[in-house]
Amino acid sequence: MRQFKDKIASGLGSILEWYDFALYTFFSPLITELYFPNTDSSVGLLKVLLIFAIGFFARPFGGLIFGYISDKHGRTLSLKLTPILITLPTFLFSILPTYEQIGIYSTIFLVILRICQGICIGGEYANNIVYLCESIKSKQTYFFGSLGSCTASFGIFLASIIVTFWYMIFSHHALLVWGWRIAFSLSLLIGIAIYIIRKNMNETPIFKNILKNKAIIKNPIKDSFKSQWKICINAIGLTFLPATAFYYVFMFLPTYLNNLGINASKISNDSSLSLLLRLLIIPLIGILADKIGGIKIARLSCISFLLFSFPLFYGLNYFPSNANYFLIGFALLTTMNAGTTPGLLMEMLNPQTRCTIFSFTFNFCFGVFGGIVPFISFLLVKKLNNEIASIYYLVFASIVTFIATFFFKKGNKIHD
After folding, report:
1. What is the model's pLDDT at position 270?
2. Mind listing the pLDDT tens digit for each residue in 311-320?
3. Would you kindly state where each structural domain of the chain is located, as residue ranges?
4. Is 108 helix (H, G, I), strand (E, B) or coil?
5. How far apart are the two ends of the chain, measured CA to CA in Å?
6. Mean of the pLDDT values across residues 111-121?
7. pLDDT for 331 beyond 80
8. Taking a C-beta distance cutoff of 8 angstroms, is the pair 237, 400 a contact?
9. What are phi and psi of 233, to 5 degrees?
10. CATH 1.20.1440.230 fits 2-407, yes or no
11. Please, which pLDDT band fits residue 414 given cuts at 50, 70 and 90?
12. How many beta carbons lie within 10 A of that of residue 178, not counting itself?
């Protein structure tokens, strides 16, 4: 019973993480009006998305900090710190004065809060997955890793539900003035609840074995980059497509469809449905990967993106009335890498530096390659004057990860 409670406590933190980040994207048109009112709407949106990306650039640094803590002092210590640290900048953002009230300082504070949040978030998602996978039998690694991926989808799903409900009950003026602030401030209650639940978490058997054998590495960061740099590069390659695809489908596409003139409430409904289907399918992919191996499914995922990305995006552009079907198609494509990538990384990495490398590479990909997806995608469309141009980045990511799958090698066993 205690182990089950600890797994639930571990997963809840990632839900909070992705809830906060998804809200920022879903409300980006409102944030543009409030913090960049004197610029062209498309330029203002690019600025909002650039700040979104800046927050992600801070994530690898947070990954190193909290990965180091996990490998040196235990998985649970990191997971106890992050809920409050994630919640604080989000709550401060919910009470941040607008450009009309304090001018350029609102933009400066917005950037600072995004950087602080990015650093704190860097220690949550990857360490949560490590905790889940180290607490179970090795034959279930992909399944529990896929559950870690589900927490991200559930956080975005929760944000999507909130946004849909908010658009239903609030007028545009009410949303602009105070409605969006309530949605962000809810994270404070979630963060406090998660901290309380996590206070008495048990350490993983793997870290207990590391302590027992006195095998803790003096400096996990130095060892990771000096002795295991090839593994780090391969891990980045394997995570490139999952990061890019996730933010392309669930962060860029809803904003892009809104720019096409599709009702924001309808977009939220469609995104919620695609996320719900994704939540149901990812664990099934994890179960399948435990039986046949994750690398086969990872390669199939890359090939599927190369084959179907252009047709799906073409459909979104030229048949927007059927956008829900194309969004679901994109969401289904993301299930294969979401269900396998955590397990692949767990199999690759040495338990003594697992959190450091996992946190850094995962956050590097999601922070840099994933975080810039909305900005790069809109920039490609604007600069090339081609509606289909945004798909080029997704195709490039598919090729990179496909190549990386051929360099995958299993490292130390997850369980002794």
Report:
1. 73
2. 999 888 888 7
3. 2-407
4. helix
5. 23
6. 83
7. yes
8. yes
9. -65, -45
10. no
11. very low
12. 11
Predicted confidence (pLDDT) per residue in 260-313, tens digit: 666 656 766 777 788 788 888 999 999 999 999 999 999 999 999 999 999 999
Find the angle CA(144)-CA(146)-CA(147) to the nearest 5 degrees. 65
Calculate helix-pair angle for 75-94, 2-26, nearest 10 degrees: 30
d(CA 409, CA 16): 33
CB 266: neighbour CB atoms within 10 A?
17
What's the one-letter identity of residue 311? P
DSSP 8-state code for residue 37: T
Token code pair at residue 255: 């904003």
Q: Which strand (E) or helix (H) includes residue 345?
A: helix 323-348
* Cα 222 from Cα 124, distance rounded (Å): 21
Q: What is the pTM of this model?
A: 0.82
Q: For the CA atoms of the chain, what is the radius of gyration?
A: 20
CB 108 within 8 A of CB 99: no
Helix, strand, coil % in the chain, rounded to nearest 5: 85, 0, 15
Q: Which two tokens stand for residue 296?
A: 């086969």
